[in-house]
TrEMBL record:
Compartments where found: Membrane
Protein name: Spore germination protein YfkR
Species the sequence originates in: Paenibacillus aceti
Topology in membrane: Lipid-anchor
Domain Spore germination GerAC-like C-terminal span(s) in chain numbering: 220-386
Gene name of the encoded protein: yfkR
Cited InterPro entries: GerAC_N, Spore_GerAC-like, Spore_GerAC-like_C, Spore_GerAC_C_sf
Family, as annotated: Belongs to the GerABKC lipoprotein family.
């Protein structure tokens, strides 16, 4: 009996590892698939939609080279674009022209043009959300320039254009907005902030990359309401920085302020940034409190500020906190002017005080713009001032 039980256990332990081994997950071989990493969608002047897919070209990739391309072979990626009335039909036409089956499992970036963003991006979101192999974690970008310009951008440091844009997100240079964020936006307000990119022509790039001299840059952010872009207002690059603070999408930052002693520039590195938002009831009225904390050290200084003086450091700290409070307040003010609650304060209100939200939800846009007080408190502590008590410039002059 014991021997039979031992044999049974041995058999189970032998078979069990085989059950967790992964086999072919699809009937289609990888060599027969095409994996677009970026999709661009725009509405043309004639009313037609144009969709372009950016594909890596495995036959042109050379791992031994940093850029992954060979001047004698060509770029390691390409764009295929088609026009039509509906996105689904356009993707079908692209598939008919492709030699491989298109699989969207690697598509991480979706860039939308100005005209379509103004008219509404719901068709794009709807198509993506219905594709089982299209990740809703794909990042959304908007550009007010011609979407075609993205094909003219060189890949100097990265292998693909899509990687450049995902680096913007990873390095906290712009707001992180995904298809999932759009789907989860409050159906009553449908407000969301999307990062905006632009293309600048740089002559020095033309020397090394003929015909591809457009450099991608962050151009602030656009506000979306009910699936449409608010055309007359957007966040500047400086206000985008405030948005990153509000949404807790950065944990470190560098800020330059004027010294309280001589108005010369002092640069401060801020770490461990934490921002919390909560609704409160004051005088039977709803209000919001934003509290942001962190610690900092002196990065560089052109000022004669004596950092061994505790009072002088406190004044510098107060100046820093007031500067950041003003930045956050200006960012909120821009969204209020557009009556667009892109920071989803309505969600906080719904979670904390659902009965109050039920009364305000039908008029939330107006209430947010004109009646909602937001108390902002930034408390950054400067705890390191560096080796020199005064700037090296001041020491040399002395």
């Amino acid at each position: 009996m014991k021997k039979s039980l031992a044999c049974l256990c041995t058999t189970i332990l032998t078979i069990l590892p085989l059950l967790v081994l992964s086999g072919c997950w699809s009937a289609t071989e990888l060599n027969n698939r095409a994996f677009p990493t970026i999709m661009t969608v725009d509405l043309l002047e004639d009313g037609y939609l144009e969709v372009a897919l950016g594909f890596p070209l495995p036959n042109r990739m050379i791992p031994s080279q940093t850029g992954g391309s060979n001047s004698g072979v060509g770029e390691p990626f390409t764009f295929i674009s088609r026009k039509g009335k509906k996105i689904g039909e356009i993707l079908r036409d692209i598939q008919l022209d492709a030699t491989r089956d298109i699989f969207f499992g690697q598509t991480r970036v979706v860039v939308i043009g100005r005209r379509l963003a103004s008219q509404g991006i719901s068709p794009v979101i709807d198509l993506i959300s219905r594709q089982p192999n299209f990740h809703i974690s794909a990042n959304l970008f908007v550009t007010e320039q011609d979407v075609k310009d993205i094909r003219m951008t060189p890949t100097v440091s990265e292998r693909f254009v899509s990687t450049v844009l995902t680096k913007f997100i990873d390095d906290k240079l712009t707001i992180n907005a995904t298809v999932k964020n759009f789907l989860m936006s409050n159906p009553r307000t449908s407000a969301i902030l999307l990062p905006q990119i632009g293309f600048r022509k740089l002559e020095e790039i033309e020397v090394t990359t003929p015909g591809r001299d457009y450099w991608i840059s962050s151009e602030g952010a656009v506000m979306m309401s009910n699936g449409k872009m608010i055309s007359d207002r957007h966040l500047t690059n400086e206000e985008l920085r405030g948005a990153l603070w509000i949404t807790s999408q950065i944990d470190s930052a560098i800020s330059s302020i004027k010294s309280p002693t001589d108005q010369r520039e002092v640069t401060i590195k801020i770490n461990n940034i934490r921002t919390k938002i909560k609704p409160t009831i004051k005088n039977n009225k709803i209000a919001f409190e934003l509290k942001s904390t962190g610690n900092a050290y002196l990065f560089s200084s052109d000022s004669d500020l004596d950092v061994k003086d505790t009072r002088a450091v406190e004044e510098l700290q107060n100046t820093l906190n007031k500067d950041l409070e003003g930045l956050i307040r200006q960012t909120f003010e821009t969204t209020k002017q557009a009556k667009c609650d892109v920071f989803r304060l309505s969600d906080y209100l719904d979670w904390r005080y659902p009965k109050i939200w039920e009364k305000l939800q039908d008029q939330w846009g107006e209430y947010y713009a004109k009646k909602l007080p937001i108390d902002i408190d930034v408390d950054i502590t400067i705890n390191r001032t560096g080796t020199f008590y005064q700037s090296t410039q001041q020491i040399r002059n002395y």
